[in-house]
């Protein structure tokens, strides 16, 4: 009996290690944390990744459909990385995302449609970046957004239309 349990445990560990990149830690509950010299979104098991934390990476760009393979991704955090460019369709296909945190990156500009496919997004934290301005339509499709943090950026003024469709923000 103990031998069978050992084999099952070994099989689970082997399964996790085969699907988890070396620069990441993948937990059975769907949490994935990656750090280090990675330069792009790692290839992860789509049905086993619910929360992705990319901290201190070398990622500089989010390409089109970067998160489409991660159909069940609910929370994304990219922090302390040189991320400077987000393609307008980077989040296309990531329809389950509820929370996006972009913290301490080099982002200075966002395409007006970057969040347009994230209708279920509830939390958006983009603090401590290099944002200079926000296009008036950048939050247009975020009808379920209740929490937004754009503090500690370089934004001097905001267009009065920027928050026009974001009516559920908790202040």
TrEMBL record:
Pfam families: LRR_8 (PF13855)
Family annotation (InterPro entries): KCNMA1_auxiliary, Leu-rich_rpt, Leu-rich_rpt_typical-subtyp, LRR_dom_sf
Compartment(s): Cell membrane
Membrane-related topology note: Single-pass membrane protein
A Gene Ontology term for the protein's cellular component: plasma membrane
Keyword Glycosyltransferase carried by entry: no
A Gene Ontology BP annotation from the UniProt entry: monoatomic ion transmembrane transport
Keyword entries, A-Z: Cell membrane, Disulfide bond, Ion channel, Ion transport, Leucine-rich repeat, Membrane, Repeat, Signal, Transmembrane, Transmembrane helix, Transport
Signal peptide start and end residues: 1-17
Highest taxon of source: Eukaryota
Transferase keyword on record: no
SMART domains documented for this protein: LRR_TYP
Protein name: Leucine-rich repeat-containing protein 15
Organism: Bagarius yarrelli (Goonch)
């Amino acid at each position: 009996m103990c031998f069978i349990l050992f084999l099952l445990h070994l099989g689970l560990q082997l399964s996790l290690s085969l699907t988890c990149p070396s620069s990441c830690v993948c937990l059975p509950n769907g949490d994935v944390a990656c750090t280090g010299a990675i330069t792009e979104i790692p290839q992860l098991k789509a049905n086993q990744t619910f929360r992705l934390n990319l901290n201190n990476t070398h990622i500089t760009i989010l390409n089109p459909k970067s998160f489409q393979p991660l159909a069940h991704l609910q929370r994304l955090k990219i922090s302390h990385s040189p991320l400077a460019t987000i393609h307008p369709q980077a989040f296309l296909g990531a329809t389950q995302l509820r929370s996006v945190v972009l913290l301490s990156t080099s982002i200075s500009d966002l395409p007006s449609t970057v969040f347009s496919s994230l209708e279920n997004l509830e939390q958006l934290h983009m603090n401590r970046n290099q944002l200079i301005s926000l296009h008036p339509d950048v939050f247009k499709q975020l009808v379920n957004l209740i929490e937004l943090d754009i503090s500690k950026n370089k934004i001097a003024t905001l267009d009065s239309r920027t928050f026009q469709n974001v009516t559920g923000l908790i202040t």
